[in-house]
TrEMBL record:
InterPro entries: ADH-like_C, ADH_N_2, ER, GroES-like_sf, MDR_fam, NAD(P)-bd_dom_sf. This is Enoyl reductase (ER) domain-containing protein. CDD domains: PGDH. Keywords: Oxidoreductase. Coiled coil: none annotated.
């Protein structure tokens, strides 16, 4: 095997607010050979995800903070270049924790086989990947939806939210989305099949939420936190369930609620007798062995649509991440950095 040069995007400094491009730096080095039980892969598609913003803080969270100089982690779809693991051979397509780099060496046991005949490569980072499992396991394990119930989903045009809503529809629920523009709301309803969608930027947001579901909401799949979620709480039905999947509106230190809002927040928990449960997808890793088969069936039957914002080239990884944090994506943000051999 010829010597390979690897470009890696690394963490350069902790941003005080919204990250900018200078938070990252590019390092280059020679790619080592895989050891026993390892595979060397060339990344083809790279994922950018909101949780990475949390890793940039130097404080306690559910995920350890990045060290300065550390390579940025993340999921990828890759092709095996060299293998020292019995299950894999050169040319195999795999889903791996490959990170923001050209090449990755991982243990063969952590790789998942990717079948292009079953679904496009992009689907293995979206509906069939961690993003899809987050929506699926979060909604089923935490929300326990029943056919006929009404589900509200924030960041409904985003990677997880778009799937959570479609899963709700596949399970026979009525689904309402929250998104950040008229264009996104139109996509959520007309392309993704939600029953309605409300623009949180509207001056009549709370009234609009009530108008599309006057009887309230059984389940709220929360991806954003902050003011939006505070407004939703008082519109939950008695014994409603709130699933806290993400708080993207708060990740860069923004706080759009005054301290007095906490008292009001607690009051509505009591008044509506709400069950609020946060989750991390790794907590539910073994809960749903049927996931891939079920999701693949929904994709085949077009009950789930693959919605992506696709970028081209290694140099677009950081811009794609920054755009995603600002809500400029629809569906899953993916960067294609190489083609399969």
């Amino acid at each position: 095997m010829n010597h390979l040069v690897n470009r890696r995007i690394c963490f350069a400094r902790r941003p005080p607010g919204q990250p900018t491009a200078d938070v990252f730096t590019i390092a280059e080095g020679e790619v080592p050979l895989p050891g026993d039980g390892q595979i060397l892969c060339r990344n083809l598609l790279v994922s950018v995800d909101p949780y990475l913003r949390l890793k940039m803080h130097d404080r306690e969270s559910y995920t350890p903070p990045l060290e300065i100089g550390e390579q940025i982690p993340g999921g990828s779809i890759a092709q095996v270049v060299s293998s020292r693991h019995d299950d894999w051979q050169e040319g195999d397509l795999v889903a791996i924790p490959g990170g923001w780099q050209d090449y990755a060496i991982v243990l063969g046991k952590v790789a998942t086989r990717v079948d292009r005949e079953r679904a496009p490569l992009e689907a293995w980072l979206g509906p069939l990947g961690m993003t899809g499992y987050t929506a699926y396991a979060g909604l089923l394990s935490m929300g326990q939806p029943k056919a006929g119930e009404t589900i509200l989903v924030s960041a409904a045009a985003g990677a997880v939210g778009s799937l959570a809503g479609q899963i709700g529809k596949a399970l026979g629920c009525r689904v309402v989305g929250i998104a950040g523009s008229d264009a996104k709301c139109k996509t959520v309803v007309e392309t993704l099949g939600f029953d309605a969608c409300v623009d949180y930027r509207s001056s009549t947001f709370e009234e609009d939420l009530r108008a599309v579901s006057p009887d309230g909401y059984d389940i709220y799949f929360d991806n954003v936190g902050g003011r939006i979620s505070f407004c939703v709480q008082k519109q939950m039905k008695l014994f409603g369930r709130i699933i806290v999947c993400g708080l993207i509106s708060q990740y860069s230190g923004q706080n759009d609620l005054d301290p007095k809002s906490l008292d009001e927040y607690m009051r509505w928990i009591l008044v509506r007798r709400l069950a609020i449960r946060g989750f991390i997808v790794s907590d539910l890793a073994r809960n749903h062995p049927e996931f891939h088969e079920t999701m693949a069936g929904w994709l085949k039957n077009r009950q789930i649509r693959l919605e992506t914002t696709l970028y081209q080239g290694f140099g677009q990884i950081v811009p794609a991440f920054l755009a995603m944090l600002q809500g400029q994506n629809t569906g899953k943000s993916i960067i294609r950095i190489a083609e399969a051999a």
